[in-house]
Design a protein that fits this description.
With 255 residues, the chain is of the alpha/beta class. It has helices at 2-15, 22-28, 30-46, 50-64, 175-180, 200-228, 236-242; strands spanning 67-68, 73-74, 79-80, 87-88, 93-94, 99-100, 105-107, 119-120, 125-126, 131-133, 137-138, 143-144, 149-150, 158-161, 166-170. Strands 3-6-9-12-14-15 form a 6-stranded mixed β-sheet. A hairpin with a 4-residue loop joins β14 (158-161) and β15. The chain is elongated and about 90 Å long.
């Protein structure tokens, strides 16, 4: 229990620059409180003390604004930042080193018994307000953008955004390299200038800009060649006639 608490506090220091002291974290961070109370609720649930487990989780929700079903399985070093409105369902499974922001829902899409909530593998980051629904799997190191609605499996190291969520890109950077460089993506959004940026839209824009620059250079080169052939490019009409295949190009008379 104390080892888990020590890890819970240390992970806050790593992922929240606003954290100042151990005492501050222990007394004012609802995510830490919710995890502490969930461990008790989960133990009671395992002892078949279902009502007591649910009552304890109900008190935890009242105190922290975070609702975790006693049956949910949670790994080590989970960081719940802010936490208000987080809901984790009964059959949800969360791996190690995951991060959830406020308003995240790990919910079900069926009234049937059995596995009906998501499984998060290690190192998953889920942005504020995102909904991950159904018995799906979010792969190791994956990121879910804020307010996304995810209803299908997310591959390892991929980024999912939108409603319904679409996979932007699978990261070429492996989990070991990710950990080696100590990269952390707050709210599942990366710095556009970051070489490990998982945001494919930013990369696409950079590609379009590069292509536009190359086209400008090509047009300038073609213009120089046309001028070398004495093609008059002064007016639009002359430019049009220069490229009209039905009549020969107009050229400047030679002096």
């Amino acid at each position: 229990m104390f080892n888990h608490l020590k890890e819970d506090i240390s992970i806050v220091f790593e992922r929240d620059p606003a954290a100042r002291t151990h005492w501050e974290i222990l007394t004012t961070y609802p995510g830490v409180h919710a995890l502490l109370m969930h461990r008790l609720s989960h133990w009671l649930w395992g002892q078949h003390l279902f009502w007591l487990a649910r009552f304890n989780s109900h008190i935890a929700r009242w105190l922290t604004g975070i609702e975790i079903h006693p049956g949910a399985s949670i790994g080590r070093r989970l960081f719940i930042d802010h936490g208000m409105g987080v809901v984790i369902g009964e059959t949800a499974v969360i791996g190690d080193d995951c991060t959830l922001y406020h308003g995240v829902t790990l919910g079900g899409t069926s009234w049937n018994k059995g596995k009906r909530h998501p499984t998060l593998e290690n190192g998953v980051v889920i942005g504020a307000g995102a909904k991950v629904l159904g018995p799906i799997t979010v792969g190791t190191g994956a990121k879910i953008g804020s307010n996304a609605v995810v209803v299908k499996d997310v591959p390892i190291n991929a980024t999912a955004v939108g409603v319904p969520a679409r996979i932007l890109e699978e990261e070429k950077t492996g989990k070991e390299e990710f950990e080696k460089n100590k990269l952390f993506t707050a709210y599942a959004v990366a710095n556009v200038n970051d070489q490990f940026n998982p945001e494919a839209i930013a990369k696409s824009l950079q590609s379009l800009l590069a292509q536009s620059t190359a086209q400008d250079a090509k047009i300038a080169e073609l213009t120089l060649k046309l001028e070398a052939l004495n093609v008059d490019l002064v007016t639009d009409a002359e430019v049009a006639s220069a490229f009209d295949v039905k009549q020969p190009a107009k050229t400047k008379p030679s002096k």
